[in-house]
Amino acid sequence: MRTLLLLLASTALVAGLALPFRSVKGNADGAHKYSVQLYYKIPNQMYSLWVTNITVGTPGQTFLSFIDTTSSGFWVADASCDNSFSPGCYGVKMFYSNASSTYVPTINGTYMSNNTFGDSFGIVGVDNVKLGNDDAKAVLIPNTPFGQSDSLPYYLRNTGINSVLGIGFPGLTPSAPSPLFNDAIAKGVVKKGIITIWFEDQYETDDNGVGGTIYYGDEDPLHCTGTVNYTPLSRASLWQYTTPNVAVNGVRVSSIGNIQTIIDTTSNFITAPPQVVNAILSALKIKNSTGRNPVVPCNTKINLTFLMNNTAQTITELNLVTKDANGVCNLAIMKAMPKGTDNGIRFELGEPFIRGRCLFFDYNNEQIGFTDAGTHT
């Protein structure tokens, strides 16, 4: 599986900025595309991370930032990060505040962030931040708060990742600075409070190397087609909404309904209620007591359809069946464990759902939209 590096940039107040993988092109509406590179992270494991280049300070210091829908706030590895205390700091590029002429310290500003990878701690500073590292085209967010972490999660060691960009709502990470994109909206450096994300289908090869797009400030007109179907959020902290029902190979799972659902860019799997996983295993005639990444024939055919009030979103074997380095195929799905009072009745939709479609994260109207992916150029 691949880790994809997204380089983000734009002009100051644009209708939107398109940031595809690999090819460098411009377009008439002021949006820009940037090349990205692929690299492999963990041999023999099906795991990928989606990251972007973000620049902090004057002159700019560039960081490799993981895109996280399940946290808010933006932090980078700070020069105060101690290898002996936090092994995750080893070998990563760090932020040097004394090298930035626009840096402003805050008084008693501290933060703690918890996400999929673990905890990070540090102080809060203020500086100019650019989405991307092209001075002529990057989105400049002036005088914005960000976290300077003196400890990094061990999980990120040896990945090259030295930053996290949370695109959740304010308050999702209470002690973190204001989310970066929310500050961009407030300061008027993007036209609309919308982020569009599209990632290519798994194993797609007819796209000239373009792996996907993040489009800041509007709906992406270049890579998405058809009418956008929006669903209101049930909770505006995570990107969480209600799925009325789900069907496996066209048959509804009748024992459950109105399932709380979140979009999770930190996950490479679909986490589903036990009833749904059992229905899938039954349809495939697979015996697997845990329901976690069951081994399946590589020619498996499966349709998992999420039935919402105004749209139906289907995942097929194209993105649900993954093959490891040994040629063994697995279903990228697992049973949800009870969390709080939900008894495991929830969906966490990771990479298999995100691939092959466009997702529209609408901050101002607190809704999420879906449509088909269009062109891949």
What does this structure look like?
By secondary structure, the chain is mainly beta. The chain has 2 domains: about 5-200, Cathepsin D, subunit A, domain 1 (Beta Barrel), CATH 2.40.70; about 225-375, Acid Proteases (Cathepsin D, subunit A, domain 1), CATH 2.40.70.10. It is built from 4 helices and 27 strands. The longest helix has 10 residues, at about 275-285. The chain is globular, with a radius of gyration of 20 Å. It starts with a strand and ends with a strand.
Topology:
Layout lengths: L2 E5 L9 E4 L17 E2 L10 E7 L4 E8 L3 E6 L26 E12 L2 E14 L7 E13 L11 E5 L12 H7 L7 E6 L12 E5 L7 E9 L2 E2 L2 E5 L1 E4 L2 E2 L6 E5 L6 E3 L1 H10 L19 E5 L4 E5 H4 E3 L5 E3 L1 E3 L10 E4 L1 H4 L2 E6 L4 E7 L4
Parallel strand pairs: 1-4, 5-10, 6-9, 18-25, 19-24
Antiparallel strand pairs: 1-3, 2-12, 4-5, 4-8, 6-10, 7-8, 8-9, 11-12, 11-26, 13-27, 14-15, 15-18, 16-17, 16-20, 19-25, 20-21, 22-23, 26-27
